[in-house]
Structures are given as C-alpha cells and as structure tokens.
Amino acid sequence: MPTDVERWKSEVYGNEIREHLLEFAEQGWDTIPEDERDAWFERFKWWGLYHQRNGQESYFMMRIGTPNGVLTPGQTEVVAEVADEYARGPAENPIFGNGYVDWTTRQSIQLHWIKLEDIPEIFDKLESVGLSTQQACGDSWRNIVGCPVAGKDKHEHVDALPVAMELNETFKGNDDHSNLPRKWKVSVTGCREGCGQGDINDLALEPATKEIDGEETKGFNIRIGGGLSRNEPRLARDIDVFVTPEQAPEVSGAISALFRENGDRDNRYNARIKFLMDEWGAEKFRDVLQEEYVDFELETAGDDLRSEYSYNSGYADGGHSDHVGIHEQADGNYYVGLDVLVGRMGVDDTKELARVADEYGSGEIRITQRQNVIITDVPEEKLDALQDEDLLDHYSPDPHPFMRGSIACTGTEFCSLSIVETKNRQVRYARWLKENVELPAGVEDFHIHLSGCTASCAQPQIADISLRGMKTRKDGEPVEALDIGLGGGLGENPNFAEWVTQRVPVDEVPGAIKNLLANFEERREGDETFREFVARTDEEELAELVEPEETSYEDPMMHNTKRTWYPYADDDSLDASPAPTRADGTPITSDD
C-alpha cells in the first residue's frame, strides 16, 4: 500500500501547493483543519517550509534555495531584510540573539520563526530579486550543490557553474520531476578539491576527460546513490557513463525519470535511490538507463580527475581546501572565505556582509557546504581595507582549527527530529577546545560535526570526530548524550566514521576529545594525520582512547531539551509555550 505521504501527494502536490499555501496564509494558521495538518505540512515542504516542533505551533522554518551557493548582488541584503522583519520569535537565543540567518551544509539558507500569514509578503520580497523557496524541501530536486567558487577558481578542471545553473532552470518547477519517491540531491563538481561532495549525493557529476572523435573532451563521469541519512550511509557508485556539459541536463533528467518510475513508493525508508542501486547494481542501472530513458548512445566513463580531491578529507596537504581564506581567482581578482561558526549569522552581521561584499567586491556572495560564506571579485588593492573591517574580526578568514572545523545542525531549538541541542553546544565546545586543547604539531584542519539525530544534516559521518545526539542517565538523572565516531572523510579515498563510543554525557565530550587528541599525539607515527591514525587503529583500541571525562567545561543544557518548547526560554516547559499565535504574535486560544 502507498504510504500516507504518497496518498497526500497524489491529491495535491508540486506547483499547485502554492495556491493553497497562499489561501491559508490569507485566512490564518488556525484555518488549517487539525486533522489535515500533517498532510499540509508535508506538502508545504515543496515550497521550502518545515513546521517547527512541539511548543512552536504556527511557526515554520523557511529554506531558500541558492543553486551552487550563489547569491547575486542585492540578494544577500534582501535575505537579511526578510530575516530582520519576519524571522524574530517569542524568545531569544543566548548566543545568537533574536533574528539570524543559517547558512547550511547544502549551500542554502534557513530562517526560523516564520509565520504562515507573512508568506505572501516574504515570497514577494524574495522573488523580486530572483530568490525562491520552491523545491528547497520535499520529494523533488533539492538545491543543486557544487564548488562554491565555480567559474572563479584558478584550479578547476571544468567550469561546472553553467551546468549547475542549467539543471536548476530545467528541473525546478518542472511538473515531470516534481513528485519523486523521495528527495533528490544533486552535485556538480568541476574543481580539484572535490568540494561538491558528490560522493554523498543521489546524483553526482564528477570532473573527467574523454577522447571523443580524436579530441580530448572535458565533462563529467556520473555516480549514483550516495547519502548519509539515518544509519544507512552510502558512497555514490560509478555507473560507467561520461557526459559532456551539453549532455548533462538530458542525462540527468533521464536518471531522475528512472528514479521517479522505479523508486520505492511503498516504504519511505527505502525510497532513496541508494536502495535501488543496492537492488540493481551499477551494471543493470546503466542498462535500464540506456535502453529505456536515453535515446542516444551513452559514452563509457572517461578518465577520472578525482585524484586530487581534498575537501573534507582529513588528508589536505600543503594548505586548506575549504575555501576559507584569501585566494586569487582566475581573473586576477580575489575571493575571501569567511568562517561562520556553525553557520549562523545575526541579522545585523548579514546586512554588514552584504555591504562589505558590495563595497569591496562585486556584491556577490557564495555559500559553502561547510556553512561558511565567500566574498568574491575583490581587487588586490582592496584586500587590506577589507581585512580591516570589523565583520572580519567575528568571521575570520584565518580561524583556529576548532572554529574552522565546527559544523552543527539545527538541533532541538527548532527541529522535531533532533534529540539534543546542537548549535549553541557546538559553539561552546569549539570555544572551550580552543582555550584548553593544543592540537598536535602540523594539524591545521580538524573537523568536528555535531548532528542532533541520525538524519545526518550536519554530515557527521565524514568528520574527524563525529557526534550524534542520544540520551543517557548520569547520577540517576536523564541527560543529553552523544555517540562519538572517528576518522570519517571524503577526498580521493572516502570513508565513513567508525562509531566507537556510545551515549557519552554531553558535559564529558570536550574532555573525551582532549584525551583522545593527547592519546593520538602520544601514539602518532611521524606526521600522520588523525584520519590515518584512526584507519590503522582497531575499533576496540580507539574506544579506549576516547576516555570521556568531566572538565572545566560546563554544559548549560544537560536536561532533555526535546521536552521543552524552547530550550533557552526562562520557563521552557511545554505548558509555558506562547504558541500558537497569529501573525502579530498574539495568542490563538482554544475558544477562537
């Protein structure tokens, strides 16, 4: 039997959701029938809206798609204005205040505390500068990711930006590809670092060359079925297909159609294309694609250009590979990558980012998959003045490794799936580690990813240290806890972290990291990287080296934040929630 979600989608889905969404916005939150809310909330995702969690009824997270992470001149300023006017809630975050922008691991933007009644005005503001929430969520083509400096990078093998943009133009809002069995994540990579992270995407176009008609042709090899979610991570698999940039949209559409018609619609857990690849294998997948979905002869795979991949690898040699810092572009100008700790930037800082980008560069901003931002097109003579700006004191182009390597998902602050608080905690972890732990000699990159649950939005399986939300008991009391994994990374030889220690109380995690790094330094052979050390050490020994320990670090959120309406409210009990509210913030009582 089809799932509830498939039944809901069969009734209303795709572009037609917008009309209903705007009607509900005009009539108010409380006009959504209570017994239909699950169905409408699932449909609203297609237009970039996730309903927030218990205690935050009537509030939504809004995701804005920015293909390949590109914000053109003027767009960042409008995002900041929307956040300022519409993304302030009934409580304040103690670190980030009230009103902020989240840069995500898929080069998108998230805003919180959005009211349904404000959607029409928000859509108008975003669309006036070419931004959209369309298909930022839902069972469709998600935001297309790639190298954040595509078209600017001196070292790229092929300029993948036109391909990413054409895929976005072709498949966003395309009725034939609007209702897939599950979400569809696409990466287009042309750079030597591999920062498109194709290995963890459903469809990955990876740089390659092939001799065609006697000429060496630049293009892409295709891989299928990568992903991190839940407990079933997969690396994308080669299907022995090479496409030119001109062929990429047609073949990508064919693969999307194959998934549309063959993906599992009876079991959402098994609906991702990675499970179809498990069932069919690469050879059958290619055969079906050729015989039923493509009307020209597919080229076999070309020469792979992945050998230099270093992004998120733990193996970077001779410099950083995350695009943070000051780098020369192909045209002689420079781009400046800024470290945004856990990807969150206040409204005022986001406005400053727009101003600084306009004053010193072209006004363009690029978002990376490490939750950072890049100012592009800065002339050399303006670099010194740019570095003197106050904004760069807070978002450094030369951050400490613990700051540089920190990623966190939304967590229980807003997410109904998360088990623990994440963003504030990872900020505190990074600051404590910076002050109390000295990294071993030569370790300039160290990635710590904190994900609030197994959904893997913070991409924990590809970090040096992977943290995943759990619960445990300490001194007889229930407390938030984290599983600890080690040695994940992408790059030339990608692999996932080994989960070596379970359910460590959150206040003992910094001590565990400190002890682990000390043990690594003591047992390290030569100048091997942390990932190399993990790879040659068996899992049982690694578990012994973690050594959880209470330290001077104090965690303010040991209690079960999933059982609160907002973890940082003075009274955070569910009974104290002010929600649901109208657009102006006044409560909606049961009598209404």
TrEMBL record:
Family annotation (Gene3D superfamilies): 3.90.480.20, Sulfite Reductase Hemoprotein, domain 1
Nitrite/sulphite reductase 4Fe-4S domain boundaries: 137-293, 403-549
PANTHER family reported for this sequence: FERREDOXIN--NITRITE REDUCTASE, CHLOROPLASTIC (PTHR32439:SF0)
Annotated Pfam families: NIR_SIR, NIR_SIR_ferr
Family note: Belongs to the nitrite and sulfite reductase 4Fe-4S domain family.
Nitrite/Sulfite reductase ferredoxin-like domain: residues covered: 54-90, 96-128, 327-389
Lineage of producing organism: Archaea, Methanobacteriati, Methanobacteriota, Stenosarchaea group, Halobacteria
Region feature Disordered, mapped onto this chain: 568-592
Keywords, ordered alphabetically: 4Fe-4S, Heme, Iron, Iron-sulfur, Metal-binding, Oxidoreductase
Protein name according to UniProt: Ferredoxin--nitrite reductase
Signal sequence segment: none
GO molecular function: 4 iron, 4 sulfur cluster binding; heme binding; metal ion binding; oxidoreductase activity
